[in-house]
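Input record (one chain):
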Amino acid sequence: MPGLLIIGCVAACIVGLLQLVAIGFPRISPTIDGERLTHPLSQLVMGLGLLLFAWGIFSRRRWARSVLIILPILQYAVFYVDTHRAISEISASHILLTVVWIAFFAFYCYR
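The corresponding structure, as predicted from the sequence alone:
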């Protein structure tokens, strides 16, 4: 497995576990722009989703490549739903990060 995917697998596993533990201890929840996921269902979805993604990378499932490419969209979707932000409030930095991420990993996974 390439080094970049190993890093992604370990990172997704750690953040996924943190999100699950954060259901009981909200102060350790990872943040986006200084805001945490607050609803336990959002934390559960994010935590289990990231652990499933990490398992997909580790077990070399083909679907994990597609999830890797759209991962920021999925994460921001959970974040924006949890924080009750309107689509018009999406920051330019989130859009830029997402576009760069998609371009890089689409090239990386399908070159």
